[in-house]
Amino acid sequence: MALVWPLVGRRDELALTHAAIAESGAVVLTGAAGVGKSRVAREVAERSQHRIRRWIAATQTGRAIPLGALAEFTGNCGPDPLRRVQEIIDALTGDEPPMTVLVCVDDVHLLDDQSAFVVSQLVERQIAPVLMTVRDGEEPPEAIASICEGGRLPHIAIPPLTIDRVISLLGRVLGGPLESTSAQRFWSYTRGNALYLRQLIADEAAAGRLTERSGMWIWDGAPSLSPSLVELIGSSIGRLDDSLVDVLDVLAVCDPVELTVLQQLLGPSVVGAAAERGLVTVDQVAGLVHLAHPLFGEVRRDQAGTARLRNLRGRVADAIGALPSQSPVQLIRRGVLIKNADGNRDPELLRTAAEAALQLLDLDLAVELSRCAVQVSSDRAAQLTHAMALGMAGGGSGCDDMLSALMSTADDAERAQIALLRAAILTWNVGQPAAAEAVLDSASEASWACGLAPSSDALRASIWAQLGRPSAAVELATAALSGGALQPLAEMFGTWALVIGHGDLGQLDQLREAAARGYELALTAPEASHLRFSLGLMEMAGLRLAGAPESTRIVAARLRGQSQDVDVSHAFTAMLMGLAELSCGNLVSAQRWLRESLARAAKFPDLSVSVCELSGVWLTTALAMSGDRPAAQEAYDKTLKNFDGDIVLWQSESRLARAWLHAVNGSASLAMESALDSARVARKYGRPAHEVVCLQAATQFGCTSAVDRLQELSTTVQGPRVGAAYAHARALRKADGPGLVTASGLYEAFGDRVAACDAAAQAASALYKREQHEASTAAASTARRLAVESGADTMTFRAMTCSAVLTRRQIEVIALAASGLSNREIADRLFTSVRTVEGHLFRAYQRTGTNTRDQLVAWLQGAGPAAL
């Protein structure tokens, strides 16, 4: 891969440097090795107005040679050493007037004394403007130091690149967007050091770990350091005492590490010395020590011996274990350390570490740690934890086989417990709710005998919620959760049933109460803590249905902040972020998050099917709302369509994505029929909140038949969406322009900017037809503002500029022609005759002044009337 590296994010530094040269005649750029001082200096030289520019690169080897840095300018020097300085100055500046030749000196701290004196004379005698770079922590020669003392020359610091600048830079280098967690990892490994970043990108691209998936660049795995990068890092570290190497090695196996642990292992003075050398950073508030650069750890893992690292892992694990209390993160770190350390591996520690990894949704690590626990010990608790981890990570069949074998040798109490786990995994990870109910039925007597019947009912309620039986699910879950102590996993699944059920029924207040109960349970029951992420998804779905999009952003951001830095977690929480942005009508941001989710989930096709499907469905919707027909079709074609079977939970989402796909293809009638059909299915299952969203979409597409049903729903469904949708449908049926303006305002007030845009566009058309041109112009202006803010380019919005010239049917025919359909195919799609299609096209030619099909399509896609 040929990579071109533009200068990004240095506008301020460039402007300051140019100004300093113009004002003071000389300037010094300072910064750490590799941050980009030389690049900024070269850019300043290239952009300067000076006709002649001299570049002098000082080096460590040239430092020992008198005038070594200026050797190329000494060729015509005579034998008189007293005249040599002037002769070199003449060679540098030629016959040019004073201050017209720009002299740039890179790494001025490496100049030999005589070269430094020449440079100082250029400044002192104002012979030439001088731009110098110097590395932080280095002392320049005395001649340079003398002209800098007392603030005589301006110093401009060149800081490392921020994360935002790294994202911008790499987007341009790679020719496409970089997934956010990959960008964060690149920044974390390099701390914004441009030289490290450039080498690391080149190495990882060459190794095939930096690849493009789903339109996003993704970096997988840990870096494998090339010799050139190791040399770069080694030169910045310098030679170290053994005690400082010990600090790096401890952090190479455990970064971060508790300050008290590091001091106990190596002593306080050594830790302080490492901090002074810039090898580590100490967070006094959190009590943690981090490597100053993660790449330092990569270098030491590569260079330290295996035996030494295994011994260190054991010592660090023991020291962390001696702390008075341990968080889930510390448990995980201890488990990882002893798994790869010398000595006996404690199976109970490995098991509890696996459970802690599950809590934080680090599924791969949970499987790895629990498998190790099973290998060390045949303990049934370890086997159950391993089975749970396998189920969560997508190994459904293997997990069920393991649990089935355990059930066959279990007593009643354990059999009932295992049945709960099997049923949960079959329902929510494998997608076999009927098999899950059969498992619960087979263990019903055992459940009653050992007091687990309420837990069984709670889990069964979640199955009913998935099958689209919200009223029954809420009733059963309510009874189960009030029936005394429950097994924590079952209690969480019962809470899911309440959240899903109340969301489907449009009971916003009860939904919020149930979700709060679930999050509280996650805090007090570690074995159920990992389920809070899916709880958040279900809460967000219900909030979106009701019309509370800003609340979805809060939930998504909170869960994103709680997730671990692992691929599965990134895929899931990126999906949550995408859903939140879609709910708010932030279509560009939604597309980016959903592409990130798909890119991460693609690495794990077996364990993240639902993530791929949901992200694909919502990406299809976002792209269709944005008017990007080819991309929307591609996203839909790549999405697995498993939402139309027994599992009803996400059917409305899938059906509405199809409706929006019809809309972006220009088929208003198919879009309306698809949305209305989705509403009919939602009504059949008793899911009124879904019915509202589907009827709203149909109204956005131009349907005028949803008024009566939305009026009925407005008396039972909570949240602002149903009222706005009812006002929208009522105004559209009457062609009531002011009423449509009011509906647009209602949508915008609760955050649905795409619906607000469509309602405003319909208002503009209705008002124009009634010759209320001033009001029409105002409504059109509102629609355009909302389109810009949201990124929307919907069928209804596009029709706004054409409705004064063309009928809705003519617009639909032209849009279908734009998608490449023949007249016969258009007629089949619209259930009409070819002659009728030809008639619509003929009248459209007349009204638009076009002569060909291509001209007519171009007119509709932007060459028509610019505005009403």
Describe the protein in words.
One of its GO terms (molecular function) is DNA binding. Residues 799-864 form the HTH luxR-type domain. It comes from Mycolicibacterium wolinskyi. With 868 residues, the chain is mainly alpha-helical. Among the domains are: 10-157, 3-Layer(aba) Sandwich (Rossmann fold); 163-224, no CATH class; 806-861, Winged helix-like DNA-binding domain superfamily/Winged helix DNA-binding domain (Arc Repressor Mutant, subunit A, Orthogonal Bundle), CATH 1.10.10. It is 65% helix and 5% strand. It has 45 helices and ten strands. Strands 2-3-4-1-5 form a five-stranded parallel beta sheet, with helices on both faces. A three-stranded antiparallel beta sheet has the order 8-10-9. Strand 6 (210-213) and strand 7 form a beta hairpin. The longest helix is centred in the middle third of the chain and has 18 residues, at 488-505. The radius of gyration is 34 Å and the shape is flat. Residues 863-868 have low confidence and may be disordered.
